[in-house]
Amino acid sequence: MSAETPGESAGNFDRLRLRFRDWRGTRPFWAGLFTLLGGIPIAYFPYATLKLGHMSLAMATTAGAGSLIIGVLLVTLGLTMWFQSATRVFAGVAAILLALVSLVVSNIGGFLIGFLLALVGGALALSWAPGRPQDEAPGEHGGSDAPTAHGATGDLPEDHVAERHYPAPSFEKHDGGEADGVRAAVHDGGHRVG
């Protein structure tokens, strides 16, 4: 008989689910998943033998090795996005480039399935940015670039920055007092008619 009760096993499942959700939230999970799934049809279709009744259909091409390399690289890039999220930009650009190359090399990118999955995965990797930890307040920054109390005047928050006033343009005096009237109107904010 088992020492675990049903309530404890449900607690373990919830704990594992929450741990997975925390792990997933700290990395470009969906980008890695789409990239990894995009590599599978690209590598699979050139070596697959499909059976339609008594007829077998082989998709083998002379570029089968190229398809296998592209597929394996896309799977590797998907795993890299998961476990080395600091290299997400490189992995995203490489996934997009490999997806584009697969259009020519690998049966139209694994019949467009692998191409679209890898393209979306690469784009998601490029657009993903690490979030702020939940225990940190919105106004706080937890890094070396955090503003200090002794910061320069350029470090003021946006709502404390005063409007900049630029000097009025200067006009040269040409024939008579016409320029003086324009200059006076400019200095008064444009209210004087001249």
From TrEMBL:
The chain crosses the membrane at residues 29-47, 59-82, 89-105. InterPro entries: DUF6114. It comes from the Bacteria. Residues 133-143, 157-194 have a biased composition (Basic and acidic residues). The keyword Disulfide bond does not apply. Keywords: Membrane, Transmembrane, Transmembrane helix. Residues 131-194 are annotated as: Disordered. This is Integral membrane protein. It comes from Streptomyces fungicidicus.
